[in-house]
Amino acid sequence: MSKQFQFKLVLLGESAVGKSSLVLRFVKDQFDDYRESTIGAAFLTQTVTLEDQTTVKFEIWDTAGQERYKSLAPMYYRNANCAVVVYDITQSTSLEKAKSWIRELQRQADPNIVIALCGNKLDLAARRQVSQEEAKKYAEEEGLMWGETSAKTGEGVSDIFTSIAKKLPLTAPPSARAGARAGPARTGVDLNKQAAAGQGQGEQCNC
Amino acid sequence: MSTALDIAQEIIRPTEDVKVAIDTRSAPRPDSESEQETWPGSDHEPPVPRRKILAVVSHVHADGKHEHGCVFVFTHKPPLVHSIPDDYLVEHAFPIIHGFSISMSQPRQTTLDLSSPAAGSSFSLNQPKTELTVTINPGEDTPFSPITLQTHDIQGLRRLLDECKRLKEAFAMETADDFDFEPFGWVAPYMADHALPPLLSSIPPDLRKLKKPVHTRLSAASAGMPGDDISDVEIIREEWMRSKVEDELFSRGEKAGLNIRVGTFNVNGKFPSQDLSAWVRGEASRPPAAFIPPLKEISPLSLGESQKNPVDEALATEDPSNGQPPDATSTDTRSLSAVSDATTYVNFSVDTQSTQTAVSDAPPDVPEDPSDPDMLVLGFQELDLSTDALLYSTKTVREEAWCMAVFAGLGEKAVLYEKLASKQLVGMLLVIIVKKRLRPNFSEIRGLAVGVGIMGIMGNKGATAIRLLFTPTPFPSAAEAAPLGRPTVLTFVNAHLAAFDEMYEKRNADFQELSKRLVFEPAISVDEQAANGSWYSPAAAPLSIFESDALFWLGDLNYRLTPHDADVRSLLADDQLREENIKTLRRFDQLSSAMRTKKAFEDFVEQPIRHLPSYRFSAGVHADGMGYDMKRKPAWTDRILHMASKAVTVKQRSYTSHATITMSDHRPVSAEFELEVPALGLDEYESFVQRVWRDVSAIEYVEERPRVRVGPTNIDFAKISYTREVTRSLEVVNVGKVPCSFRFVPQGPAADICPPWLRINPVTGLVLPGEKVDVTLTAQVDEELASKLNLGQAHLEDTLVLHTALGRDHFVAVSADYERTCFTTSLSWLVRLPGPVRELKSPDDVLPEDRGVNAPREIMRLVNWLMSNATETVGLFFTPGDEELMRQIREKLDTGEEFNFGALEKDPKLALAFADTLVRLLESLSEPVIPPALHTRCSQMTSRDEAFELLDDLPVVNVNVWISLTAFLHFLGQQDAYQGRVEQLVAIFTPVLFRDDLTSPMPVSIIGRRNFLRYFIG
Ligand SMILES: Nc1nc2c(ncn2[C@@H]2O[C@H](COP(=O)(O)OP(=O)(O)OP(=O)(O)O)[C@@H](O)[C@H]2O)c(=O)[nH]1
Ligand SMILES: [Mg+2]
């Protein structure tokens, strides 16, 4: 029997760096060229399976990057087990913004939070303003995970989430699981059970 | 008739697809045709085979890849009262999985019964037709057994089998690892549909719950902390259904009226000795010389011994329909319940005898007037004061006597009425009298009594209550049968609470205690209810009095007035200022204060009293000039309140006491109510609720996340100011496939949902796919808020968080710029303003305390304008000002702009608006012109000189305001138009300049304060 873990993950970063796009790629393996800016916070879940068959279920909060809503971010990163702080490799200002998010997390979030710094829009490397060395050096200094991704091509996306899953303390089930949802409760008839039980009986339709 | 596909599509939600649907019927068992499932047709027709619809439904999961199928059988719903056409429910749902199979069997020739009305079009060809048998085998590992159906639709069946095959093959290709969701989770909601939707209950929800805003009943939630979405959905959905029923069914359909006259009378142990017609019929429609039974005071002792008394004889001649022997009540009634903590003293009776007589004795010659009440609800207290009364029931005699006096008071109309029910507990008696012709419209009558008197249980204080159903469409025959119409639950409570001025808290406690303990025991057992079969059946659970559509609470509640005895008497004695003084005293009424502070009677409604206190009267030397007992402070002890859900419209037509009935130390009080209830069939109601329910029953089960568009996301209210509301609208559009329930949540766990300057309506809601809800945001600054904002920053901004259940949070940025006002501040702050308040950039810009002006410019501007323009105007301060004009005047005060009203300048309307603005400005000050610490001393001044001396103790600014105001009022009092109205000016300005302390149990003398003011303006 494989083990299942559940963690709360929050995405932070300047507007338009591609947070929502990363989540969409990770959860649905899709990409949108014209995404509306997030005005609010979206909640999604995705599961990753590690080599040892351990599954890690992420409860993901994708937050609004616009400055106007900055004061609400703490509501979403409180109790988070991990954070992905995103910048756009073609915008050096977005790295500055990412750094300020990281400082805030280090100051105010759960002290055990696992933070990954993520340089997005790798497909636009031709217009790169943030060098790999610079970002990597900063990440090392701060003790963060680091990686580059492209939500557009999918490159590096699952890697970053998988590395986070590996880094999380999988020895004990996470204690803080704020934001956990009540699943569908009180189904009238448990049809799922039958469905599962019915498998493997290869009887044919006589039609 | 709808096609099979129509019906299936009606039931199946938009998240699923009906692939094929065909008409079938249940197959006969091979052994006997008669065991076929049928519903009875009309009397002489053979039974009709039930129509069943067989459908294949597919669901494509949110990932867009996986498709799963399920075979449904829909069957016609069992009829409730009479069958609702085209109402189907899910009888079977068989997931198409490995073990599933479906087959059709050898055709056979058969002749159908063609007269059957319920058969589909495919049945109605008048020739032999091929009929196929379909057998569905759900699979061995399922809990379901195979079923067999018959159909003529060969083509349809073929397509249906093809679909099944396709879906079964698709299922076989999958492995469990392909998806991490439940493949047939989407089927569960259809099966859960059998649960009774909310609102289909014979018990109305608790009125106290209905009066609380929905969001206060939801789980704790905030941004990023969704709370318990599932239970929130249930509450929001029920509320949504309720308002749908109210808006689309109740308010559009037909209405039935019910006029109720409610009365309360503390009779002080007396027997009736006067005509009660004023109380039971009202003064206006008094008939000439109604019959008054010749009643004398008789000692209870002598009555206890004699079975006959003059009252009985009087009644016997007066009302033939009620002409039973005096003990008729006890022999001809059945006791429905005798529930009480003081059981021995309680009797509850329902007259059944007179129901029969009503039919035969229908009075042909007494016409009904529209003003005749349909129902009389009369509460008596202190029916019997003898100490014996606590031990023995003296019920029949006194109840009979008073009922007879009531019927006598009804005069020639008495024959139209009969007693429906009564309930007594020692001295408390509640009697319900109805029009005979309406008797069949009342049912499930229950009585109840609770004592909270001596030792907390005795019946010297407490309440009796009666609960009944009113059904506009009467019952088919026997009173036992389930009503055809949707009934309205009415409950009446007659209470007598703790006496004496200082027992205020005890009265509140009595109310709370009675609210808890007034619970009707069930009339029938749970088994009986289950046997009934319909969702509508008499409640088998204990029922609170608050589980009503309308609740009336009457009685001697014993709440008193807080001002000094002498104050109360002289205020009441002044018939020149009666109206003004009653208004003044009402503010000091303990019941009003209990309601204001929510200590008792929270959410009840009482019409403002305009009559004199009904307590306590005396005769001769013990009485003051008004007839009030010198030993007891007059008070409004006798009250009538109510509370109703939106299912009933209650309009109060009168509220008065009856001074002509003087036999007791209380005067009787009455109130007339006009009720409007929906006149609906139960079946009509049920099918409406079921239809609404079908769209929303499964929100918490569906796998799809709700998707809504919320906008605009930035709302600027621009300039907002004191008393002016600015509204904006926010649209919540459901762009997804499933219904979406939403609620606004606070940003943080301990925060409010929105900033204090904003109101959201509604705070919770539900949107169906493709529909939208408009949320109204209203920026408003009331007095309390203005006084805070005046001293703070002018730019306001915040973010609202709208949470969709099981979905995301949406942000709405709101902002506004507050415009400061001179209202709601203090005199000492106003004088420190360097200029008009609107020009103040920051609250720090006010002048130092010692550099302020002598008196607030704003007040002086108003007084000066009035002095030079308005002293000839009649009715200044007595006639309210025009709101729009007052807004303009306020604006000019705040901006410092000149008063320039052009053509209006000569209009008395403008002067009245100026006068009213002055009063409101003074009322809005955070502290009155006379500081509260000086009120007592002011009230004790005995001469003009003393009064002037006292002014030395006021701050200089206050003295300046006081002097200029009183000088103006004095001048006004000298004018012809104000001859004899100085007292009225004094009465109006006393609470403005002193401000009443409504929280004090012993307020500073009102008369004393008026005297003080009179020294200056008289
Ligand atoms: N070329 C390229 N464009 C991307 C990539 N990721 C996102 N984008 C585009 O960048 C824009 C912004 O992406 P979003 O995902 O909406 O950005 P966000 O961080 O969620 O922004 P906010 O919601 O405003 O905080 C969109 O037009 C995306 O299509 C990427 O990897 N490569
Ligand atoms: Mg986004």
TrEMBL record, chain A:
Sorted UniProt keywords = Cell membrane, GTP-binding, Lipoprotein, Membrane, Nucleotide-binding, Prenylation, Protein transport, Transport
Chief site of localization = membrane
> Where does the record place Low complexity bias?
173-198
The organism named in the record is: Lentinus tigrinus ALCF2SS1-6
This chain belongs to which protein, by name? GTP-binding protein RAB5
SUPFAM superfamilies in UniProt: P-loop containing nucleoside triphosphate hydrolases (SSF52540)
- Intracellular or extracellular location(s): Cell membrane
Q: Where is this region: Disordered?
A: 172-207
Q: How does it sit in the membrane?
A: Lipid-anchor
Indicate the transmembrane segments per the record: none
Q: Which PANTHER family match?
A: PTHR47978
Q: Which GO terms describe its molecular function?
A: GTP binding; GTPase activity
The record's Gene Ontology cellular component field reads:
endosome; plasma membrane
Q: Name one GO biological process term.
A: vesicle organization
The protein's matches in InterPro entries, at most eight in alphabetical order, are given as: P-loop_NTPase, Small_GTP-bd, Small_GTPase
UniProtKB/TrEMBL annotation, chain B:
- Per its UniProt record, what Gene3D superfamilies does this chain match? Endonuclease/exonuclease/phosphatase (3.60.10.10), Immunoglobulins (2.60.40.10), Rho GTPase activation protein (1.10.555.10)
Molecular function via GO: phosphatidylinositol-4,5-bisphosphate 5-phosphatase activity
Q: SUPFAM superfamilies from the xrefs? A: DNase I-like, GTPase activation domain, GAP
> Which Gene Ontology BP terms does the record give?
phosphatidylinositol dephosphorylation; signal transduction
User: What is the name of the protein in this document?
Assistant: DNase I-like protein
- Which parts of this chain are annotated as the region Disordered? 18-48, 314-336
Q: Which PANTHER family match?
A: INOSITOL 5-PHOSPHATASE (PTHR11200), TYPE II INOSITOL 1,4,5-TRISPHOSPHATE 5-PHOSPHATASE (PTHR11200:SF300)
> Compositional bias (Polar residues) spans?
319-336
Q: Domain Rho-GAP: where?
A: 841-1018
Principal subcellular localisation of the protein: membrane
**Claim: Transcription is one of the keywords in the record:** no
Please report a single Pfam family linked to this protein.
Exo_endo_phos2
UniProt subcellular location: Cytoplasmic vesicle, Phagosome membrane; Early endosome membrane
GO cellular component terms?
early endosome membrane
Q: Which InterPro entries match?
A: Endo/exonu/phosph_ase_sf, Ig-like_fold, IP5, IPPc, OCRL-1_2_ASH, Rho_GTPase_activation_prot, RhoGAP_dom
Q: Which UniProt keywords apply?
A: Cytoplasmic vesicle, Endosome
Read off the SMART domains from this record.
IPPc, RhoGAP
Q: Which organism is it from?
A: Lentinus tigrinus ALCF2SS1-6
- Extent of Basic and acidic residues compositional bias: 18-32
